[in-house]
Design brief:
Peroxisomal Thiolase, Chain A, domain 1, globular, nine-stranded mixed sheet, three-stranded mixed sheet, 415 residues, 36% helix, alpha/beta
Length: 415
């Protein structure tokens, strides 16, 4: 790949995480599950837990408010607002229109909600980038908010892969963070690996099949990416991973990123005929260098569906943008059902200054640890609204649900 990149990309990222977190070793002890099965088998250590006044609307609005509070993007600049979620609050009224109101975004803004399981966030980013490239933006920016709560029944096999959080991504023609390359690779196939019928609060999943679908979609998307790149005349025959400074994967649980990277390496070795003599050692080195450092936030948050990939991107940017300016990274997004996309982007000059404003580490450090009993009580309480305690520094909350209508209030906090 050449060093040149397009001018459309990620201008800024805002992340929001619930203030409550459950250490998974305490949950493992309560469920009589060996801790190593969670720490090693899943690669997970903590999971974010929502309170009754938190839902997909509040998580997304708080992420966007944190983005605006960084001072580089203003609400009045937004001409397209897309919210991606698989935990929507209504079958007809979109999460995005609540955010439009809460955030004070102008009326002349296209607003809608987008769904394709965990792929929805990337679908929104790509749609926003195309909107800007088309000229329809007329100098304005797009705001893509990915917001989700991964929720499963108490004492179920999926309980340890829960989580919650949101990522707000501003997309512009003069990005301050990551310039997106115009080429991407996609893969789609109708499968039932993970789904949530309209009458159910928790999702259904065929775990092993879902892992297989993810890996097949990765191989398909990467193959399509390489084919698309070849059509541009780029004849670089080196394995794709050798051309990238980092690789970020959709991370329903951190061990999935490890499985994904192994599949990518195997596919690239086969495509280029470059498998090393000691493939296992080479894979371990590649994973440790390109993938593992950017999974720390996911290990401490859990699965956040549409926002998962962008939490990894925010963590990389915050921790290492100063070392990555001018370097290209690869990103893979997967959504059950299924659709997947592999794409690349380059950190622009000055991106370290922008990335330093994101604040994921501060969010992680400020959380309150729960006992298993407190977590179970919150799970039983559900999302019914309420008044958060003064220690919950957030922009807004769900105040009440009355007559099947949801009422949100701003807290007067901007970041």
């Amino acid at each position: 790949m050449t060093a040149e990149t397009g001018t459309v990309g990620v201008d800024q990222i805002g992340i929001y995480l619930p203030h409550r977190v459950l250490p998974l070793d305490t949950l493992a002890a309560a469920r009589k599950v060996p801790t190593e099965k969670i720490h090693i088998g899943l690669g997970a250590y903590q999971m974010a837990v929502t309170a009754p006044w938190e839902d997909a609307v509040t998580l997304g609005a708080n992420a966007a408010a944190r983005l605006f509070a960084q001072g580089q993007v203003k609400p009045e600049e937004i001409g397209l607002l897309i919210v991606a979620t698989e935990t929507a609050v209504d079958h007809a009224k979109p999460v995005s229109i609540f955010l439009h109101d809460l955030l004070g975004i102008p009326n002349n803004c296209r607003v809608f909600e987008l769904k394709h399981a965990c792929y929805g966030g990337t679908a929104g980013v790509m749609m926003a980038a195309d909107w800007i490239r088309s000229g329809a933006a007329a100098g304005r920016k797009a705001l893509v908010v990915s917001t989700d709560i991964a929720r499963y029944p108490l004492q179920s096999s999926a309980e340890f892969t829960q989580g919650a959080g949101a990522a707000a991504v501003a997309v512009s023609a003069q990005p301050r963070l990551l310039a997106l390359d115009p080429i991407s690779g996609v893969y789609a196939k109708n499968v039932y690996d993970f789904w949530r019928p309209l009458d159910k609060r928790e999702a259904l999943v065929d775990g092993k099949f879902s892992v297989d679908c993810y890996l097949d979609a990765l191989a398909g998307a990467v193959a399509d990416f390489c084919a698309a790149r070849n059509r541009t005349g780029d004849k670089n025959t080196a394995p794709l991973y050798t051309q990238l400074a980092a690789l970020l994967y959709h991370t329903p649980f951190p061990k999935m990123a490890y499985k994904a990277h192994l599949r990518l390496l195997e596919s690239e070795w086969q495509r280029t005929g470059t498998q090393p003599a000691d493939a296992a050692a080479a894979a371990a080195r590649s994973y440790a260098e390109l993938v593992d450092p950017w999974l720390e936030a996911s290990r401490k948050v859990g699965n956040i569906y549409t926002a998962s990939l962008y939490l990894c991107l925010a963590w990389l940017a915050e921790r290492a943008a100063d070392r990555f300016e001018g370097k290209r990274v690869g990103l893979f997004s997967y959504g059950s059902g299924c659709c997947a996309e592999f794409f690349t982007g380059t950190f622009v000059p000055g991106s370290a200054q922008t990335a330093a404003r994101i604040g994921v580490a501060d969010l992680l450090a400020a959380r309150q640890q729960l006992t298993v009993e407190e977590y179970e009580r919150l799970a039983r309480d559900g999302t019914n609204g309420g008044v958060p305690p003064s220690g919950d520094a957030a922009f807004c909350h769900l105040a009440a649900v009355r007559d099947e209508k949801r009422f949100y209030e701003r807290n007067g906090i901007t970041g």
